Structures are given as structure tokens and as C-alpha cells.
Amino acid sequence: MQQIGLFIITYVFVFLLYQFLINRKVKKKNAKPLEVKLLENIYKIDIKKVNYKNLLLAISIVSSFDISIIVTIALLMESYLVQLIIVIILIFPVILISYFFIGRYYVKKGLIKNE
Predict the structure, then answer these.
(1) Tens digits of residue pLDDT in 29-54
(2) Domain range holding 40?
(3) The pTM is what?
């Protein structure tokens, strides 16, 4: 039960952090976050066809979920060294898998660049 509470608290905290810091910064400077560039380059998502606000929201939701899962799993371990190893091992596969699903979603909707 503690792990579920930790997951929820971490998720809400990271989601709000994403919304207030990263998404506002993007709106002010008209810069693209790294996640959007990843989707553009790997999955050929056409940002002009996508509702950009919804894309940023989806990125915030998925990134918050990823970080919450990794933190919850890592904190199940006793040793700080094991926690660090777990985070290092999990971070890239979890992020790549979750962005794979976002990319596939937009590809299936046909929001890709016509080459």
C-alpha cells in the first residue's frame, strides 16, 4: 500500500512539475522539447498536423508515469547502490517503450510527414 501512495505522490509531483516548468517554458520561447524532437526524428511525426497542446499533455502524462514507475521500483530496494543500478538499467528502456507507444499512436492516426 505504501508503494501505491509513493507512486501516486511521485506521479502528481512530476506531472505538475512538467506542466508548470517545462510546458510553460516551451510556450514562452517557442522551443521544442527533446521529446517532441525525438518523435519528429524517429517516427516522422508532423508537428503541423498534430494538436501541439495535446501532444505536450501526452508527453507530460507519459513522462510522469515513467519517472513514477522507476522511482517506485528503485525504492523497493534497500541499498542505495542497488537503487542507482536499477534506475540506470530501467530509465532508457522504459522511456523508449513509452515513446514507442506515443509514436505508434500518431502514426496510426496518419499524422506523419509526407515524404
Answers:
(1) 567 888 888 899 999 888 888 888 88
(2) 2-108
(3) 0.85
